[in-house]
Structure formats: structure tokens, C-alpha cells
Design goal:
By secondary structure, this protein is an all-beta fold. 2% of the residues lie in helices and 37% in strands. Strands 1, 2, 3, 4, 5, 6, 7 and 8 form an eight-stranded mixed beta sheet that branches. Strands 9, 40, 41, 42 and 43 form a five-stranded antiparallel beta sheet that branches. A four-stranded antiparallel beta sheet has the order 12-13-14-15, with no helix packed on it.
């Protein structure tokens, strides 16, 4: 996995300065630390029970560093950091100019989904941001769209490059699935995504025919070549381009002839050999489902395998895909599987199992029930059935329990929000609308008739081990809203607003997701990136609550890190770790990882 630095962050609070830092996945759980302010040690004894500290003598002018302590010896000092004046850090953006479609319709741009990777090998994440035009479309809707762009920014706001995906890549949540990861293990992240004739890389070089225009009169792109390109993360330069696989082929063979089902794309990163990452590009989920795995190694892009539900023996896998995807080693063999919704594709490109419950909009994969070995999947489904809401074993597909539904379930969430019950609690948007489905524990026991009115994201934010709820204040007129973080009051059965980040906006309509949620710096708790209302900046919010809980950085847990890599794909879902993180948890095992540093080979 990637080498990342200490991630030190210092934030001014009422009673001083809050300071947080990472415990890396390669470090022992009992590592101690010394914290320094302006070169003077702050703590009397080495800090052993947490990775944060409230320095009551800190000021806005202070500068902090931290040193790990092994035995009696202090080790390498972190890079120094200054103090934030508020609980968010601003990253200025270069907003693209709007345009006019061939139909004469004007459009503008908003910052949309984001991902992170260390593109220059300095141990600090950079942000890769997608710009979405105001006329982006779901595949079910016709119409021209503006071009989609990908930008790269340093955390200090330095602009690195822009990739223009061009007129032959339609803009919308179902089209532009971009992956940011260190695919070749050289210590620097690459970017991989679908491209086409007219895509312009970050150095200004055009891929394919710059004059080609394959848009039909309805705005769909149903002919012309399709490519897969790997870009250099530091410069945006196209490193390799090949034919996109899975290919389009006969449009009508995917379920309709208008271009709806043929252009449903997903993508993910998976350690298919258990050692090095591969990229997996996917097409289709309502009917035919095809996944193709690639390796980017030693400057070459090579295909590893293709899974196709049209192949003999796999007919049952058709129509079982979700609007999202997850990756985890579900069968314990040390190699990752792709959880494609109601089916799982094994690390070698064969089908592992299928539940047969069909397509769904929301899914959560993780250790949701600490009393059971392995991982669980909580999934809500589009087709009404006696198990339209269900939990199943991630290894075998065995349905552990389910609830009947009579409608398409749009959203569902799994998070530990009530300490009176072991494991995660689960609920859905249908629970609330139907008035009486209520809240359930992970074993399917109803624990409340009241449903939390927040169904989108969950985040570890305050000082306890329960998860908070990340959402937005939905505006029905615009389909977006100002960001929110809520706490579920399990005794009074109501939401309590913990944070109202004024002037922010959510993405992707009712999904209410931020640009990105991840453990970007500080201790094990998560940060959230929202865009400002005018998309002139990204705001990275971090907690300032002191906690005595001490966990390795979540970005060194493989399931969580890969969740961050696929978070931007289609209908965004929150990341989950591969171990149980919640009230009453046991100390998780140390990650079985080694890290790669740029120009230094591998370091174990």
C-alpha cells in the first residue's frame, strides 16, 4: 500500500489548539509520541493512549511537529504544520467557463466528486476533482452535455493539471468513473478512466481524432471508438491508451436500443493477486454485466481477465449489478473479490456466487456484525420482494435475514449508531416513507419504530466509537443542499445537528454526498470535503473533538482504502473498514501490509 506521512493537523479551538496525527499501519499499536510546539515539547510523558492532543497554550501563531518514540529513543520528526483558524481548510479552485450545446442550451460548471492519491510521492495526498456541467444527464434522459473535466490540486491549493475528457464522453454519474491509485507500486498515484476521440490530457496532447463528434441528435454517444487511458498523476500526461473493455458492441444487446443500459459503467481497484493492485472496468448491471481487469505495471497496460454474464454458466449473474460496487477479500484467501451488488466476482474472474435478488441503489460491505466471522453485505433492492431489504454473508451469499418491500428502495444505510446493540444498525428510505418499518439491528431485530431521517453517508466524527450521519439539508427546488453532520440520539430517537458547514453544497441530487469522505489526515477519524456554493473552493473539514480511542489510520486498512478509491463511482457510498469499528469493539489486528516509497523501492 501507499506510503503516507504523519498527517499532522492543528486547528484553533476555544480552549487552545487541537492537534491530531496518524498511527501508520506499519507501526505497532503501542507506539508512543512526543508533541512539539515551536520546538518545545508539549507533553510531560510520551502520549500512548491516543493520537491527538489539546494544547491549551497553543495559539494561531504556533507551529507543531510530532515525533514517534520507540523505547527511549525519539524517531524522525514530522513535517511542521501551522494552525488552521477554523475547522476547515480551503483549497481554491479553477472553475471552468460554461458553454453552449449544439441545441443552443447554455450550461455552467460545479465541482463534483473527488478522489485522492499521492501523485508526487511526498507522502501527502493530492485531490483529483471532477467538474460536472449543469446539463449532465442520467442515461435514461436524452440531451447534450458539456464536457467533463478532471483537475489535480495540491492541498495547499496549487493547481497541477486539467484533463478535458472531450465531447465524446457524456457527462453524468453513470459515465465518468475515474480511479486514482498507485497501480504500479512506484510510490506515485496514477489516474485511469474511459476516454474517447478528442480527450485532451494534462499536457495538452489530444487522444485520437480531435475533430470527431459521435453525439447523436438525442445527445447519446452510441458509436465511435472507446478507450481506456492511464494518466500520470503528477502531470496528467497520457501514459497508455487501449481499446476500452468491456466494449459497446451491439447497443441493443444490453437491453434497449436508445443507449440507456449500454452505458452504465462502474470501476474499482482490487488486489486480485493479493499483493499488487489492478484496475477493474465494468459495463452493465440491469441486464448483461461485464467486468475486465487490467494491470498497469512496468509501463504496460495488460488485460488480466474478463467476466461476462453472457458466458456459459453465468446467466444467473445478469441483472444483478448495483449502482455502486465494493471490493474486499470476502472468502479469506488473501485476494480481493468484487462485490457487484447481488453477485460477487472472484479474484480470478470467475463467478463466486449470486443471490438472485437483483439490482439495487445502495450497498454496504464490511464487518457489520462482530459476532460473526468475516464480512456482511447490507443491500436494498429496486425490485419489490420478500427480501427487498436484506443482509447476507459476504463469503457465501447466504441471506441472513430480509424484509419485504413493495417499491423501489432508493437509499439504505448501515452504521453503529446505538450502543445498546452489538454491531451496526440498518435502515432505509423506505422505512421512513412507509411509516413503521423503523430501525433494525444487524441481526434483523426491530429496535425502534422511528427511522433516522438520514440515509446517505455515515462518518466517524466525534470522540466515541459510534458513527455519525453525513448528509445535506435537501432543497427540493435545486436537488442539492448545504452539508450536515448529525448524531442519532438513541434515547430520544431524534437527530441532533453536530455541524452545519455554512456555504457548502452537496453533490448528485438526493444522494446528498460530499465531494469525498476519507481519513485524509489527523487520527483515525474521517475528514469530509464539500464544495462551496459557488464552486470557487473545496473545504476540507476535520474534527476537533479529543478522543482516547486509538486506531491505525483507516487509509492503511485495505478494504477502507479501496472504498475511498471507488467512492466516486456512480451512486456514491460511504467507506467501511474490513474490521468492526464501533461501540464495544476489540483492538483490530495490525494491517498485513507493506508500503512503497517513491524512488526507494519497497519498505517493509
Amino acid at each position: 500500500m501507499e506510503h503516507i506521512g504523519r498527517g499532522l493537523v492543528a486547528i484553533k479551538v476555544e480552549k487552545g489548539v487541537y492537534v491530531g496525527w496518524r498511527l501508520l499501519g506499519t507501526e505497532p499499536a503501542d507506539f508512543a509520541f512526543n508533541l512539539y510546539r515551536d520546538g518545545e515539547k508539549v507533553n510531560a510523558a510520551p502520549i500512548r493512549t491516543s493520537t491527538n492532543y489539546l494544547d491549551e497554550r497553543g495559539t494561531l501563531e504556533s507551529t507543531y511537529t510530532v515525533r514517534p518514540v520507540f523505547g527511549e529513543e525519539e524517531l524522525e520528526e514530522s513535517a511542521p504544520v501551522s494552525v488552521w483558524s477554523s475547522n476547515y481548510h480551503s483549497v481554491p479552485l479553477r472553475k471552468p467557463e460554461g458553454g453552449v450545446t449544439p441545441a443552443g442550451e447554455e450550461y455552467t460548471y460545479s465541482a463534483n466528486d473527488a478522489s485522492v492519491g499521492d501523485v508526487d510521492g511526498d507522502g501527502e495526498y493530492e485531490i483529483i476533482l471532477k467538474w460536472d456541467p449543469s446539463n449532465s444527464h442520467d442515461n435514461a434522459h436524452s440531451g447534450y452535455t458539456g464536457n467533463a473535466y478532471l483537475d489535480a490540486y495540491k492541498l495547499d491549493g496549487r493547481f497541477l493539471w486539467r484533463i478535458d475528457l472531450g465531447r465524446n464522453i457524456r457527462a453524468g454519474a453513470h459515465y465518468t468513473q475515474f480511479l486514482v491509485y498507485d497501480f504500479d507500486g512506484d510510490g506515485k498515484a496514477e489516474i485511469a478512466c474511459k476516454t474517447a476521440d478528442g480527450t485532451v490530457d494534462g499536457t495538452g496532447q489530444v487522444i485520437g481524432d480531435p475533430d470527431a463528434d459521435y453525439r447523436n441528435e438525442r445527445g447519446f454517444i452510441l458509436e465511435g471508438p472507446e478507450f481506456l487511458t492511464v494518466f500520470d498523476g503528477l502531470t496528467g500526461r497520457a501514459l497508455a491508451t487501449t481499446d476500452y473493455d468491456p466494449p459497446r458492441g451491439d447497443v441493443s444487446a444490453w437491453g434497449d436500443s436508445k443507449g440507456n443500459r449500454v452505458d452504465r459503467f462502474l470501476a474499482c481497484v482490487a488486489y486480485l493477486d493479493g499483493v499488487r493492485p489492478s484496475l477493474v472496468m465494468c459495463r452493465g448491471y440491469y441486464t448483461r454485466s461485464v467486468l475486465a481487469a487490467f494491470n498497469w505495471r512496468d509501463g504496460e497496460l495488460t488485460k488480466v481477465w474478463t467476466f461476462d454474464s453472457n458466458n456459459p454458466g453465468y446467466a444467473g449473474y445478469a441483472g444483478q449489478g448495483n449502482h455502486s460496487v465494493a471490493v474486499a477479500d470476502v472468502d479469506g484467501d488473501g485476494m480481493d473479490e468484487i462485490v457487484y451488488g447481488s453477485c460477487v466476482i472472484d479474484h480470478d474472474g470467475t463467478g463466486l456466487y449470486v443471490t438472485g435478488l437483483g439490482h439495487g441503489d445502495a450497498m454496504h460491505v464490511g464487518s457489520l456484525d462482530p459476532s460473526r466471522p468475516g464480512l456482511e453485505v447490507y443491500q436494498v433492492h429496486e425490485n419489490p420482494s420478500d427480501k427487498g431489504i436484506e443482509v447476507h454473508d459476504a463469503r457465501t451469499g447466504e441471506i441472513l435475514w430480509g424484509l419485504p418491500t413493495s417499491t423501489d428502495i432508493g437509499r439504505g444505510l448501515a452504521a453503529d449508531i446505538d450502543p445498546r446493540y452489538d454491531g451496526a444498525e440498518v435502515w432505509s428510505s423506505d422505512h421512513w416513507k412507509q411509516g413503521g418499518f423503523g430501525l433494525y439491528n444487524i441481526r434483523g431485530e426491530k429496535i425502534s419504530d422511528v427511522t433516522p431521517q438520514s440515509f446517505n453517508f455515515a462518518i466517524w466524527w466525534d470522540g466515541d466509537l459510534l458513527r455519525e450521519l453525513l448528509d445535506h439539508e435537501y432543497d427540493p427546488d435545486t436537488g442539492i443542499g448545504e452539508g450536515r453532520i448529525y448524531k442519532w440520539d438513541y434515547e430520544k430517537e431524534r437527530l441532533i445537528t453536530l455541524m452545519t458547514p455554512e456555504g457548502t453544497r452537496s453533490n448528485n441530487g438526493t444522494k446528498g454526498n460530499p465531494c469525498l469522505q476519507a481519513d485524509l489526515f489527523g487520527d483515525w477519524r474521517e475528514e469530509v470535503i464539500w464544495r462551496s456554493a459557488d464552486s470557487t473552493e473545496l473545504r476540507i473539514y476535520s474534527t476537533t473533538e479529543v478522543t482516547e480511542h486509538r486506531i491505525h489510520t483507516l487509509m492503511h486498512d485495505p478494504v477502507y482504502r479501496l472504498s475511498v478509491a471507488w467512492q466516486n463511482v456512480c451512486y456514491n457510498q460511504p467507506p467501511h473498514p474490513g474490521f468492526y469499528l464501533g461501540h464495544g469493539m476489540e483492538q483490530p489486528p495490525a494491517p498485513a501490509i507493506y508500503v512503497t516509497k517513491h524512488n526507494e523501492g519497497t519498505e517493509k
